[in-house]
Amino acid sequence: MTISSWKQGVFEISTDISRLNKEWLFDGLHETYWAADDTSEKLWTSIENARSYGLYTDTGAQVGFTRVVTDMARFAWVSDVLIDPAARGLGLGKWLMQTITTDPALATVHLWMLGTDDAHGLYEQYGFEKTAASAMADQFMHLRRAKI
What we know:
- The protein is an alpha+beta fold.
- It has one domain (5-133): Aminopeptidase (3-Layer(aba) Sandwich), CATH 3.40.630.30.
- It is 23% helix and 25% strand.
- The chain has four helices and six strands, in the order ββααβββαβα.
- It has a six-stranded mixed beta sheet with strand order 1-2-3-4-5-6, with helices on both faces.
């Protein structure tokens, strides 16, 4: 995958996974309801196999992250949206969502999905809608297996 970057004020988003601060990332993900039980190794594998977006200050400190599981052509699953507690309220989550949904590398992706327990309002601002309230509700199925 090609590496891309975007700048806004003193912040930068980059898809270069070599810049990710693994300690910050794993600590943050282990505090979430969705990744608390995953090992760092499992999380890193998921990051390596997705289009990952790190969010950094002008000093290089990481303050945000998300990844998009995608075939780079038709389908994308947004996952692991994470903003450092000290950087919340600055619009960085919105900027991450704007960046991924307008990323030229994903321009042909027409089916975007995600799962959330608590951030529906954020994602609705970028065109996401609850599947149960959409015409797609009857089309989707899932298979859930026990985590190992």
